[in-house]
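Follow-up to my post from last week.
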Amino acid sequence: MTARGEVAPYDHATVEAKWRRRWDETGAHRTPLDDAQRPFYNLMMFPYPSAEGLHIGHVFAFTGADAHGRYRRMRGDTVFEPMGFDAFGIHSENYALKVGEHPARLVPRTIANFRRQLGRIGAMFDWPRQVVTTDPDYYRWTQWIFVQLFKAGLAEHREGPVNWCPSCLTVLADEQVIDGHCERCGTAVEPRVLKQWFLRITEYAQPLLDALDELDWSEVVVTAQRNWIGRSEGTMIRFELVGCTQPEVSVFTTRPDTLFGATFLVVGADHPRLLDFAAPDRRAEVDGWRVSLPAAAADPDFSVGIDLGSQGVHPLTGERIPVWAAPYVLGSYGTGAIMAVPAHDERDWQFARAHGLRIVEVISGGNVAREAWTGDGVMVNSGDFDGRPSDDGKPRVVEALRAQGRGEATVQYRLRDWLISRQRYWGPPIPIIHCPDDGPVPVPEDQLPVLLPEVEDYRPIGTGRSPLASAEDWVNVPCPRCGKPARRETDVSDTFLDSSWYYLRYPSTEFDDRPFDRERTWRWLPVSIYIGGKEHSVLHLMYSRFIMRALHDLGLVPAPEPFPVFRAHGLLIKDGAKMSKSRGNVVNPDEYLDRYGADTIRLYLMFLGPYSQGGDFRDDGVSGITRFLARVWRSALLAAGDGTDESRERRRHRLIAGVQERYEQLRYNTAIALMMEFADALDEEAAAGTARRRDAETLMQLLAPLAPHITEELWERTGHRGSIHDGHWPEHDPELAAAAEVTIAVQINGKLRTTMRVPAGTPADELEQRALALPRITELLDGRQPRKVIVVVDRIVNVVAPTS
RNA sequence: GCCGGGCUGGCGGAACGGUAGACGCGGCGGUCUCAAAAACCGUUGGGCGCAAGCCCGUGAGGGUUCGACUCCCUCGCCCGGCACCA
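User reply:
Got it. Predicted complex:
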């Protein structure tokens, strides 16, 4: 019998169950929030508890975040790692409707199932601090935040063009409309004009943009946010109007240098006050035209448009130009109207062609009879500006406009205000009472929460009103201000409002008289690291930044940004495609956890590829991890030596340095590769009876964040007291971690010819001498004199010689 | 169209401008076994060669450099974001 056979094999089921129970009993994952010396708030995106349960992608995401938290904890930080559930919203509600069970009864069940599964993945969640957004103790404070925003003038009830999803029977925020379709159900949205609640995120467009520079975030996400805010610098130009009730119209352009080529004006067909721009005798016709327009199409039709009969006065020439309306201009962006310069804008060019409007070249460089020229050039047909390069002309035109009081430089943002009203049931009621005299009045804070009433029929009704409207007893209340009969707001708020502040609640869950305790919040916020999917790049992360910033301006939180450090993990796919219920390729982790145990699955998922990039889940590589853990197990239990030889100490220090660096950077795949190499060597020594206890211990410690159960068991079995997870990160000496001897590549003309082993740090001139003296090199040089020898210490010697 | 990210063995993936392919899967050969599985050992980018070794090779083509997967230019394909945004 060999030495390897003397150890009983690792039994994951028994060991993992044992430690999960033990950790639970000892409160190993409870965080002492009030006396943390080095608080580390390890936040990961809380899930929406779907009825299907956890899928393997969640395990991937949470394992990477948990491993980082465990690493910080071993380094001595007090790590707070909470978890919760984002359980309001259309998803839950639609599912409840489908199965015919009330969401208030269904959601607790789906949460229970999620918790069961999350409990199996070996993460150190501080469960007693769980946050559930549907809990009245939570949404009470969601409502409270709304009231604070309302009082600060950041929540507004106003009429506006909105996106209506005819399938979900509710309005959607602009961000929740993808290519004209509902983000959730894919139905084409319809434009409607309704009175809605908006949060004025646009007030924060510039601060939100500026602060991006200071954030340590994954670059993709920063870029996505920058695009979404869409800052555009340009010029506002006012055209006087004649022949209609509207006295003037402002237009926004980024090309003031083309002003002299403006041959008509166009008002967006969906402009809320379109008719004011039309000549009185054309109003009826224009109105008929407007209502007959089809819903916005993906491919705009430039032939659609109507002459409004009014005229604009060119601010610099006084020339009169026609005013048109067309759907290719957006009523909701900028001022909702444009000056059309067909010679230098492709869309205007097409429109002018379709309607026989004038095309006047004012920037040379193209052939505007054939197509629009959008590049730079020299200004022509532009009065005093003729002959100037276009980029030079821009500020001068702006100056001329400013002198006339007809325009000025300005900035536009693509970002829209955040529409939060939802005409649905399953959300927190917006805490407002509409009084005929006082208008919208917030529900007094001591009367929060406004509980979601029990209604029999919670189906959306599609009339533009929420199902809550039918709860008459609930709706009719006296005005809190004047006491007259008034009505409650019946819309509920967007789910993204729930998730925009949950990280503030976790540290304060036990307080029922305040949303977040001042001392706790100042100690724990902002979050130390936030790890989540890049699919939330725009929506959740933007809304959270806005809410945090608004609360900061109200003096309620210690920092303007909630997440100074954000890392996006990749997406786990299956068979080359995103996992989704409709594709039927969702992997349920339960069977894998049963079969292999949590540690193996954790390691396997982290080994698939770079955490930041995700990977393709297939189970054909799990055996590599199983073998690895078997080696760790065996060698750790057999290692009894106490050798202090330098080479093995160096190897150990090198391993610590390498693994530590990779944990810092969330590069788990390569951390695991290093540990595998080390484990192979250690296992070989264990078989020979020479393995060192110290090496085995180091390996256990380094592996602990990724494989918490097996390492805890080994720690106990090898005679240690206390948990391996508490402050046991091994020290290393960078000097020792450096190799003592290095292999130098020796090249001739950049091609590898041989290598040599030398002591690390051998100086360049000695390396050169030794390399030139190598038999292989003298032979290949064959008498040729090196023209030059490039030497990089500890790396290479490259002999540059004339080619024979 | 614009902005990101990517393209490396049969596969997943490694490589501060310095020995391309670490680590793992799979394959091949072996040990053990009646046999198989498991485990373990060896081997594994392609081509040529008995061998020493040589040549080729990181999506394609150019460039910079003593030296390029890495930097620059052009192009192709894949993924993601934005998109009548004036």
